[in-house]
Amino acid sequence: xxxxxxxxxxxxxxxxxxxxxxxxxxxxxxxxxxxxxxxxxxxxxxxxxxxxxxxxxxxxxxxxxxxxxxxxxxxxxxxxxxxxxxxxxxxxxxxxxxxxxxxxxxxxxxxxxxxxxxxxxxxxxxxxxxxxxxxxxxxxxxxxxxxxxxxxxxxxxxxxxxxxxxxxxxxxxxxxxxxxxxxxxxxxxxxxxxxxxxxxxxxxxxxxxxxxxxxxxxxxxxxxxxxxxxxxxxxxxxxxxxxxxxxxxxxxxxxxxxxxxxxxxxxxxxxxxxxxxxxxxxxxxxxxxxxxxxxxxxxxxxxxxxxxxxxxxxxxxxxxxxxxxxxxxxxxxxxxxxxxxxxxx
Length: 345
Fold this sequence. Notes:
345 residues, 13 strands, 13-stranded mixed beta sheet, 2 domains, single chain
């Protein structure tokens, strides 16, 4: 066999191998990753745990989401689902892989930081606290059968964290509600001093508020704080939008507003975040509202909303943290309008 013929065969073989590798290494869609992760998670469970984790797609529990502590008078958990505390190391890893499939790398880092704050809250509040602080009290629920043909959904949830997804025919049709919260918003003392689990959603809005001129601020600032985020139901019930519309902002201010929304959408995997941001940028400026109340200065309470026809961002920082530092306790959510969970009116 000639050297030329050997070279041609070698190149042809290399091309085939390369093509095969490209075919096997091409990134899967977010929907297929979620389906695979949910299937692996359920497959890792014992029959008892699988029963706890599995629900019909139409079960009312799917829309009964909560980010506040859920416990009875004896400080026992009341959340449904399979909790991390009762899983083996392998099962827990599968549960976290499912969570990872629904978040970006940054979002996953923030989510796991939120879970880890339960240890800090336990240290600050002590064993006599009215609330149980336990980083293993996070629960996984799967609604319907994970597949590429039908409808199904999943949730990973516990104190200050609720990640909810709905899929249909292998595609994500709703990534909401997604709620991240942080107590404290900034760790003031101890080994973790300076830690801010959710910095962008404060930094960008503070920059935006600071940039408003007197006339703009009169429209954007509201006389009363926005109410607490409504958990336990599919509808955000935020009412009509208020505040200043994006067409009344300068180009620089509008860019800051977009950065703020990117911080929320960026909790999702890149594919979904890009889709959400395309919707944001396609929203007419006259229908994109920003409003806030209070003062975003450190230690002073404030709330804000960004609302468009098909989504709303809600934020509150009005509570003291567990170390009694005022206005150092964040609740923040991305929700669909008019209703979450891919539901219709």
